[in-house]
Amino acid sequence: MKLKLISLGGFGRVTQNLFVYENEQDILLVDCGIGFPTRESPKGDLLVPDISYLEQVKSKIRGLVLTHGHEDHYGGLPFALPKIGKNIPIFASRLTAALVKEKLDEYKIRARINTIDSNQKITLNSFSLEFVYVTHSIPDTLNLAIHTPLGTIFHASDFKFDWTPVMGKQPEVGKIASIGNQGVVLLVSDCLRSEKVGYTLSEAVIEDSFEREIRGCRGKVLITTISSNVSRWQQAANVSLKYGRKIALAGRSIEKIFSIAKRLGYLKIPKNSVIKLKRIKNFPPKNVTIFVAGSQAQSSSALNKIAGRNYRGLEIKPGDKVIFSGDYIPGNELAIHGLIDDLSRLGATVSYSDILDDLHVSGHAAQADLALMINLIRPQYLVPIGGAFRQMKQYSLLAQRMGYQEEQVLLPEGGDVIEILPGGQIRIGAKIRVKSKLVDSRIRGQV
Q: Average pLDDT for residues 61-90, to the nearest whole number?
């Protein structure tokens, strides 16, 4: 008997997260995400993992766990479920479950969504799951311990150790240590910021940066970040309201997250402070802040259309300011720089991370966070995920500085399959075909 770990999004990629844990009888899926192409294409506007492998073994799928509510971890569901089974039980935290339901409703897909919290444990045939609350750039993020007949695997998708989170509670470090004390054969860990020394800063520090940027602006302020970064929107709203600004929303993804987060009590913004976008002309520019979707320069995003003078009559004028409060997803740099160029040509002052290093705090663990997780879990083997190969390599070097042997840190690429064997040996085995597919977000069941 052996247990396989497969990444259908492909090891060495940041987005399109879809992990398969498979033994002879059962399959557990973790996440089902998308990627975002940034150039116009006649074929589609989203990248999704190739699920042809799952179509062959879908009778073995016992459940799908979602770690958090970023679209690169759940946005592929509308395209995957029609192919692998709409009745697969899905497990997600409260905010994530609400976002997933909203997404599936758009595609008229009814699914079995089970809301869970970190106090629960579930059993899916040969997999027993334990959940751990961690901090990230969105509330209600979970890591999970997967208990199997061949030992425990700790799946540490996106995380950092934020001791002063803007929303939610502190990470459950005691529970992580307890799981580590019981013995873990494999740590599957976020590695996106493995090139950065120290700890990743708390989300709480961002509010001071918004204060500086908004305080003296006499024009409209446009703020963009990952749409699901709920705490960032709350901080931007706090400062905007302090300076007498009304808030408008531009982009369907922003409107969706606001509706859900306010309904669930995550966002606390007075009702009369948020206005329809068409009403901004009724206020002086200095009294308007617009939250805009499109921080990654997605071709169909609101911000990209605004920069092209093609969005609902909203125009950039001299004196306006655009604030990018987010990291670049690797590969998107050129498109984002082009977008900044276009906004600057229209007369906007653009604030972004290349010129100001305090406009964004990452949701991902830097070296000290990663080292803390390794020390708490103390696994026999490690596999870095969620980063490019250079970041996987830096994670390996970090682990080696902590006393691990090079062969204990596996660096799979593409369709490599990780095999966990009886007796505790873990190796890279066969390969499978993994190839991203470009789809049109408006059409169902394409992958």
A: 96
Mean pLDDT of 250-272: 94
pLDDT tens, 238-254? Answer: 999 999 999 999 999 99
Q: Beta strand 426-431 with 416-420: parallel, antiparallel or unpaired? A: antiparallel
pLDDT band for position 408 (50/70/90)? very high
Sign of CA dihedral 351, 357, 359, 360: positive
pLDDT at position 21 is 98
DSSP state of 420: E
- For the chain, list the domains and their CATH numbers: 3-198+362-439 (3.60.15.10), 203-351 (3.40.50.10710)
The CA dihedral of 10, 13, 16, 20, to the nearest 10 degrees, is 40
Assigned token pair, 101: 């339901």
* Cα 360 from Cα 68, distance rounded (Å): 20
CA distance 38 to 268: 33
Task: For residue 303, give Cα distances in angstroms to 32, 310, 322.
Answer: 26, 10, 10
Report pTM.
Answer: 0.92
Residues linked to residue 91 through DSSP beta bridges, in sequence order: 65, 114
Do the beta carbons of residue 395 and residue 200 sit within 8 Å? no
State the Cα–Cα distance between residues 352 and 172, nearest whole angstrom.
33
Q: Are 447 and 79 in contact (CB under 8 A)?
A: yes
Average pLDDT along the chain: 93
| Separation between Cα atoms, residue 272 and residue 275, nearest integer Å | 7
15-66 per-position pLDDT tens digit: 999 999 999 999 999 999 998 775 444 456 788 998 999 999 999 999 999 9
DSSP string across 281-337? GGS-GGGEEEEES-TT--TTSHHHHHHTT-STT----TT-EEEE-SPPPTT-HHHHH
Phi, psi of 138 (to 5 degrees): -145, 140
232 closest CA partner among 175, 185, 291: 291
Interacting residues of 104 by C-beta distance below 8 A, sequence separation 6+: 77, 78, 81, 110, 111, 113
Question: 264: pLDDT confidence band, cut at 50, 70 and 90?
Answer: very high
Comparing C-alpha atoms, which of 156, 126, 158 is closest to residue 144? 156
For 204-223, the pLDDT digits (tens) are 999 999 999 999 999 999 99
Q: Which two tokens stand for residue 9?
A: 């999004």
